[in-house]
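Thread: Modeling a multi-component assembly for a lab meeting

Hi all, long-time lurker, first post. My supervisor asked me to bring a structural picture of a complex we are working on to next week's group meeting, and I have zero experience with this. I have the sequence lines for every component (850 residues in total). Could someone generate the structure of the whole assembly? Inputs are pasted exactly as I received them:
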Amino acid sequence: MFGYYLDLALRSLKRNKALTALMVLTVGFGVAASMTTWSVFRAVSGDPIPQKSARLFVPQIDNWGPTGHEPGSNSTEPPSAMSYTDAVALMRAHRAKYQSAMYQIADSVAPKAANQSLTLIAGEAVGSEFFPMLDVPFAYGGGWSGAEDANRAQVAVISSQLNGMLFGGADSVGRMLTFGHHDYRVVGVTDDWHPHPVFYDVVNTGGFTPLAADIFLPFDTAIANDANINGSTNCNQPPAESGFKGLQKSECVWISFMVQLDDAAAVRDYHQFLVNYSLEQQRAGRFNWPPEVRLRGLMAWLAERHVVPSDTKVSLYVAVGLLLVCLVNVMGLLLAKFMRRSGEIGVRRALGASRGEIYLQFLVEAGMVGLAGGVLGLALTWLGIAGVGWVMPPEIAALAHMDVSLLATTLIVAIVATMLAGLYPTLRASAVQPAWQLKSN
Amino acid sequence: MEWRPILSTLRRHRIPASLLVLEIALTCAIVCNAVFLIGQRLQHMQMSTGIDEHALVQIQLAEIEPSPDIYARAREDLAVLRQVPGVQAAALTNQVPLGISSSNSSIKLDLAQRQPTLNAGTYFGLDLPQTMGARLVAGRHLQADEATNVDVVLKALATGDAKQLPAVTVITQAMAQRLWPGQNPLGRTFYIGPVGVRVVGVLADLARANAYNDATAHYSMVLPVFMGVGQNQSYLIRTRPQDRQAVLKAAVAALKKADPQRVVTRQRTYDEVRSKFFENDRAMAGILVGVIIALLTVTALGIVGLASFWVAQRRRMIGVRRALGATRRNILNYFQAENFVLATFGIALGMLLAYAINLFLMLHYELPRLPAIYFPVGAVVLWVIGQLAVLGPALRAAAVPPVVATRSV
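Re: Modeling a multi-component assembly
Sure thing. I ran the full set together rather than chain by chain. Output:
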């Protein structure tokens, strides 16, 4: 029976080519527009670490007090990053399951061959717990140990890209490399790890950075080696001394911090710890204001930092609006098309077709329009995604891509949406009174 | 024009008619808001920087071996740059307007103030305004003898002995107006941290590097601090617009020759800086323009489709009317009027919807209210599109011969 309906639908669609083309075009257009913007939205707003995001938290401590707050606002939001003093204190206290201070570094990496030019790469100075905390996958080796943190070992974890560039992609664990003015022993090579957004350090990267992190050094080693910050530094007062040493002694904030807390009790305890720490600083005379701390979950933190540009959200709304208009349009056209065939329906009903059968027949026809629209929509989405690079910043455009899930979603959205739009017209068609139709002819 | 038959026909085709009305309403609402959003973006993108944008290029370097004397290195670099043919002026700066990476300071009018009065973009440099082409409207520029190396400044701040500092600054008109509305800012003092700084000159305009907020985008000041070479420092070079690429190339070569132990991390014209800064706004405007075109096309096609269907369905009725004496023009006008009625309903509903969407956007995205002018303009645009879309089917209807009335189906 289904095959017969398909055949009927094909014939009917062929009969009025212009109208069919119009419907297919409309569905294709609407689906492509919404899928293209959705692919961008998905790329920038997705949970970067879904298996763990609920257990990752970002602590904030107000080391500036009321003078550091935004002029003219009543916000009591503490600085978004940490001073060196606080970051080190939190690392030493070690109250969370895992914790890591982080800051962005950049320097030249020595060329492998004489004919290569010096390359500038970016990286991140992190604690040893960074790797287990963020489930960083390794192709070779692994992270360094807490002991290596403590004795400022000259070790490094490098990205697979850098490994390809320096060591031709071979297992480079144990090999040496020169970053800046220091030599480091490679202990691990990450396995194609490029989280988007760069959720572990949004303060310095804004979430999207053209320079991916290619090297990870122990935090204390980087500090000892004077690896200056390559990100944003915010000060409520100029540092008392110039240079990187002065920055470390100042109340300037430039370090990102992340902790892993496995249950609600741990979160409560850590929050209390932050309050106690601030109280201690207050007693010591460093803060002369009551504690003001935050402990946001990773996703809340990304939202707070506006990592997902509100633009992409607005354009998603607009695209969904476009899809809606397209569907209303298709609904009108299907209604017109089906009602025109009242005569045919009357004959089929008179010859014994049940209402359900008529209903199914027309739903198949709507589904076929949806399928054709979906195929066209796929082509247009593909074009749209190729075109995203034209209008979107390259870091974001690079994230929007066609994959199996987008492909399937496009087709499913097109078919389901068209069938939904076809529900009412189909209902009307199946409600045609056979006797009345036959009589009038 | 007889309206009654049109209305009663539409009443009989209530569902398709209301679908078309709904479609027009949604289109109207979305297009009004999208055009408004585009307008907002374009306005933001027009932001003035107060500098001679087409005459500037920027070069940023990273050192492989740290310089023993960062000030001497920078002075020598500047001297080298000034020798490059085509270079009219060169200066060391810690940031450029709309350069994103920024340096800012909180400013107080009184040391006892708990909260700062405002936050301003802080340029460190000497002949920066002259090199950038920022126009001085009052007072004087900073002078060479007021320049202080940054470590001297920091040391003075640390010891609290700021007396020796040439604490003078040049600020923008916008900042002066905000600090001292309606008064002469020359000779007045404000505080950056504990240090009082005296205003000696006023610039017509100089945008800050992180000019995201239109309201505070023009709060900038220039301090006579010499930073020396370093991570966030860069050279700004002024040249003739047509020489920019050649000068950029020659300048990079000259700098590398002066000290080969460094990598060029950035070399660009100022136009690229502006273009990069407004990248997102341009993207948004581009997407919205695309969506508007798509929406209007889909709506027009929908009108064509439904009108064609109605014409086909009513061939007999048209034939009868023609046989009873209606002219071709009557038939044409009938379909045009029908479309006008539908469009009017759609527009009325669409305006309400547009207003509601605007309220939502105002609430969530800090957008201003939709100006009233959008409503009549939006209405006219949709009426015109409706009429254009219906013209084809209506002409086909008008071409139906009266003889159709006598044929049986």
